[in-house]
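1st attempt posting a full record on here, be nice pls
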Amino acid sequence: MLIGLTHGPPPPDQPANEGPHEWVRWQCGQETALDSMLASLDVLVINHGINPQGRQTPQDLNTALEVNALSSWRMMERFESLALEAKSGQRPREIWVNTSEAEIQPALSPAYELSKRLIGQLVSLRSNNLSNDQRKALRIRKLVLGPFRSDLNPIGLMSADLVANQVICQAALGLRLIIVTPNPLTYLLMPLTELWRTLYSRLLRVEPKNS
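the predicted structure (as tokens):
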């Protein structure tokens, strides 16, 4: 069963064989209210976002950080907690987080770039710090997608269907870093960035002391 999350009214007149079978309305900052729904999911796809373009007021920065990074992080935390509390022996649950190429290159929107780099680094850090036992219950995938056509970017170069098909194919191959973009540099720079973050995290990691 496919469940969609929305901040506003569900899209009208959606065909029954397309899109979510159920819609749940929520607001940033109210992630704990989603626990009962999150507990029923096998895969959580975090894809919500906002692009202030060139606007850089404190309000625009706060909104971009809240929507693109902090609410996504809180939702990840809630889903992870529920997944790790579930009975052992089940198929691992999964979190897919769409961060964007703005993690590593300009997107002509400073506030958007800042917020996407933050959530990208948080996802990398959390992925690197899962224990072996935790990895048996939870799998985290990062989606780094180039410009595709959507309400957020109506002039994207790729179609949403093309991107979705590529994401599913790469996930089926077991990849945890999924890249879909017409920009060849991303295929080089993003894995190197993830490698550096992994090495840096492991080098400086301090294990908590048992009380």
